[in-house]
Amino acid sequence: MRFDVVTIFPEYLAVLDVSLLGRARREGLVDVHVHDLRDFTFDRHRTVDDTPYGGGAGMVMKPEPWALALEHVAAQGPAAPAEPSSAAPGDRPVLLVPTPSGERFTQRFARELAEREHVAIACGRYEGIDERVFGWAEELFEVRLVSLGDYVLNGGEVAALAMIEAIGRLVPGVVGNPASLVEESHEDGLLEYPVYTKPADWRGRAVPPVLLSGDHGKVAAWRRAQQEERTRERRPDLWAAYDSED
Ligand code: ADE
After folding, report:
1. Sign (positive/negative) of CA torsion 41, 43, 46, 49?
2. In the chain, N or C: fewer CB atoms in 10 Å?
3. Which pLDDT score is estimated for 77?
4. Ligand 1 centroid to residue 106 C-alpha, Å
5. Which atom of ligand 1 is nearest to the CA of 98?
6. SS3 per residue for 55-115
7. pLDDT (0 to 100) of residue 18
8. Ligand 1 centroid to residue 138 C-alpha, Å
9. Atom 6, ligand 1: which residue's CA is nearest?
């Protein structure tokens, strides 16, 4: 699968070279290309922002550099059609736009995106990108404005890293043991159960005895109960959604 990230801080994405994702890139499982938005400007100062119409604080990202950058990215994709307008909606790559005003990025969404061949990410800075870009980009991409959570970051780069990791690790072969993907937080709508390793007694704290019992049925029941208790206490929102499912 291929990711294309457009940003004014390409060096921010350098961490994608390390760890699991770095290995996946070197093995050709995940292909990540980073583009500098300023390469799509033509003035001496490589300007990407301007003052907002209607007034107000901060600067807004100009639409034209984004249009040129996104056209470039769409033309590079694995399934780029010769004529962009001939693309059927299902064939379009996805364009993720990280923003605190977007829909929530969830594990379910990450799972859907891991099935796609081409995901582009437009990292905004300042007060955001000129709104017209999103409607314009629908011709080339399925555009999704996404938020990591109800807090504000300085720009989309950290969100892009988080999403690439969440999506990339679901691509077959990236995580060595696929079973570890099944038994983790959010996969079944619950938080994960607590885990322990040796020694069984550590600084006066014992591992829950059921885990040493060798009774797989009991262990499974205990873990499930722990998942439910944690979710009820820590994430009443998830618990309400889970509880109403059955
Ligand atoms: N950009 C700024 N804040 C963000 C957030 N909470 N989620 C995604 N992108 C962002």
Report:
1. negative
2. C
3. 79
4. 14
5. 9
6. CCCCCEECHHHHHHHHHHHHHHCCCCCCCHHHCCHHHCCEEEEEEEEEEECCHHHHHHHCC
7. 86
8. 21
9. 100
Q: Which residues, other chains included, contact 56 with Cβ-Cβ below 8 Å and sequence gap of 6+?
A: 127
Give which of 195, 176, 177 is closest to 185, Cα–Cα: 195
CB within 8 Å of 193: residues ≥ 6 apart:
222, 223, 224, 226, 227, 230
Residue 58 Cα to ligand 1 middle (Å): 17
| CA 149 / ligand 1 centre spacing (Å) | 7
Q: What percentage of the chain reaches a pLDDT higher than 90?
A: 81
Residue nearest to atom 2 of ligand 1 (CA): 153
Structure tokens belonging to residue 153? 């970051």
If you write DSSP's letter for every residue of 116-158 in order, what string do you get?
-SEEEEE---TT-B-THHHHHHTTTSEEEEEESSSS--SSSHH
Counting every residue written for the chain, the total comes to 246
Q: For the ranges 57-66, 93-102, 176-185, 189-198, which has the lowest average pLDDT?
A: 176-185
* The pair of three-digit structure tokens given for residue 25, joined into one six-digit string: 């890139």
Q: Is the dihedral of CA 115, 116, 117, 119 positive or negative?
A: negative
Measuring from each residue's beta carbon to the nearest atom of ligand 1, which residues come in under 6 Å?
A: 98-100, 147-149, 151-153, 156, 159
Contact 149, 103 (CB under 8 A): no
To the nearest 10°, report the CA torsion of 77, 82, 84, 86. -120
